[in-house]
Batch of 3 targets.
Target 1
Amino acid sequence: MFDYDAIIVGGGPAGLTASMYLARASYRVLLLDKESFGGQLKNVYLIENYPGFSEGISGPKLASEMVNQAGKFGVELEIKEVVGVEPYSSCTLVNCADGKGYTCGAVVIAGGARPRRLGVPGEERLQGRGIVHCALCDGGRFTDCVVAVCGGGDSGVSEALYMRNIASRVILLEAEPGLTATAILRERVRHDSKLEVRCGKKVVEILGGDNVTGIEVIEAASGQREMIKVDGVIVHVGIEPNTDYLEDVISLDDQKRIIVDDRLVTQIASITAAGDIRKGSPWQIGAAVGDGVMAALSAQRFLNGSNK
Ligand SMILES: Cc1cc2nc3c(=O)[nH]c(=O)nc-3n(C[C@H](O)[C@H](O)[C@H](O)COP(=O)(O)OP(=O)(O)OC[C@H]3O[C@@H](n4cnc5c(N)ncnc54)[C@H](O)[C@@H]3O)c2cc1C
């Protein structure tokens, strides 16, 4: 007898959905998260593109509804970091950082992703000293200050739009020649006099002693360098999947994302992957939720001994 029928690693929207589906189907489910439940949702001020909320919904509110729903159907939720997954012919062992291990029939890996670093001098040293990755969590410290937001994709532009109500000046930097965010966000930025958009400019160093005091940028076209005084830097230049402990367990692609088939099953039949962590994910909440459903159905199929 296993400790659980299914263990879900990661309590973001993908993991919360998978766990809710499996528990509602009467499986014994353990959901593990290393930090807190909700994943990246906790960092999103307003979600406008998740169906069913015409006025949008705050990320923390949506996360708390998902957690309540999972709990209602009997999912056991525990804060623990998973550090190893060992598949055997009859069961899978999930090992946690506190030394505990749990056996189960099926595993859903839904560990999401973490923000990618810029990889420039000053970045490591000034982490948390003016460099942050979440405007909703940490933006308040830049009230009436000058802030640079690095990254012109959806999350970077959303963060810049959030910060424009807090900071005295927001500079949005994108290394590519244009913003890559969806049209509606690009349009909002274009009409916002408080936001200064600088495309084709790459941050090459973050400056400061105890705290951030500025950034050095280089213009791609001319190679010209410029020092800009800022009090804070918010970095949103992509994400990296949380797959460090899986490298010898399942196949990952060259960007360390989990390779799955069209039912989100990895090369090990008892292990599925869902959400931002898998190859091909569009990094969206709706997609993570859809993945959670698909991964749960595949896990059920495996637990029932059916490959149909
Ligand atoms: C600022 C910002 C704004 C965004 N805005 C939008 C938006 O408006 N619309 C939209 O659709 N998407 C948006 N997104 C993207 C969206 O939040 C993600 O696509 C979505 O949260 C991915 O869900 P997930 O469940 O795959 O992973 P995550 O939300 O990343 O959750 C993964 C969870 O797994 C946990 N975990 C990781 N490794 C381990 C481990 N070893 N052991 C235990 N737990 C582990 C993490 O702590 C985390 O809680 C935004 C993202 C950000 C950062």
Note: The two ends are 25 Å apart (CA to CA).
Target 2
Amino acid sequence: MRVIEQQKNAVFKSLTELADAHCHLDIIHDAGLIRKAIERGVISMVTNGVDIKSNMKALELADNKNIFAALGMDPEHIVGVPEHELDRIVEFNLDLARQNRNRIIGIGEIGLDYKNEEWRQMASRQKLVFVRFIKLAAELDLPISVHARSALKDVFQVLEEEHAEKVHLHYFEGDEKDAELAVKRGYMISVPPIESSKRRRMIASTPIENLMAESDAPVVGNSPMAVEQSVRLVAEAKSIDFEGAAAALTNNTKGFFGFGRMQHGGLIRI
Ligand SMILES: [Zn+2]
């Protein structure tokens, strides 16, 4: 009897597959952490590029089995480069994504960040680049992973003006009202492994079909394994069990990014 119970548990455990909708594997220097996450059931991870170096690394890491790449340029690397070099760098990254269209599953990390006055002052520069990547995603028919620190209102506005469709709002920091607008537009929202009462209320009022889980490792979680905590937050806020939450969130992430389209090695099955 006990043996049967153990076997049942073993089978059940192996079915709890987790998907990390947003992380940065290029800056996790201990490859053992990534391996361990896969062993623990984090079977799919979307690693996001933020500049030329990390985009190249994301392409290198993507096996399109467990690790999938999104290429982009995040606000930090837009405000951080000299104005006269920006265009050349943007063009390089856009071309890199075009040339590797069949090896990537999304455009990201892109977006706006008004973390301080200096960065807010550079809103128009940030928006110009953000828009170019949104247009690229439409051209390549790929979803986008969007960063929106202290800039959710402007992000919503740009996305609407650009008629962006397949949108993932990563590390969502909005409230229930913001989430309602996102859901109305068909966007996906992802939950990082950080608890707050505002986030809990947002999760509780948002349909699970619009939610995904992310670790944002190593920026927020230490490794993609932290996505377990994000799943737990969703399970608790929605008063459902961990396995149920995991199954729904993993399914949403797979569906949104279309992992099923990718064949191991990076070729698209047609
Ligand atoms: Zn990120």
Note: Residues 22, 24, 48, 109, 216, 219 surround zinc ion (CB under 6 Å).
Target 3
Amino acid sequence: MHKAYFALALFGLLALAQSEGDTGLAEAGSYTPGPLGQITQPLPTPAGEGSVYRVGAYPLYTPELADGPGKDLVQGYCQVCHSTTYITMQPPLPAATWQAEVTKMINTYGAQIPEDAAKAITAYLQAHYTPETRK
Ligand code: HEC
């Protein structure tokens, strides 16, 4: 009879050991607030005597647009919200995509561009920035 009690006790101990393992798992998922709201950064390198601290111009580089009819319209209408780098940084895009881009600027982003100017701009982009025409 006492053999059965012994087995039961052993089983209990095993169960306890098992649950302690589970406790460890539970802790792994509970996060303490820690140093919330603190942003830490490394200390600046101490400047030696005679050090010179120089700040240059921020490197903003907008490539020149291709020359051709409509360039002035692009510069006038398309630079209201962003630089023309948005055009030059694109890979060569199919003519239909440029058409869609101009339409998107007007319909989605609210660019105020008269219809004839929009047509001329689209023609300009298609004449210089498609896989066939881009230099
Ligand atoms: C009313 C503001 C506005 C005007 C004017 C405007 N754009 Fe945009 N353009 C945006 C916004 C907003 C985005 C997308 C947001 C971003 O990526 O910064 C964008 C993104 C672009 C992109 C990146 C590709 C894309 O679809 O997101 C191109 C190319 C572009 N514009 C071309 C043009 C051209 C060409 C014109 C002139 C016809 C023009 N934009 C005029 C607001 C404008």
Note: DSSP finds five helices and no strands in the chain.
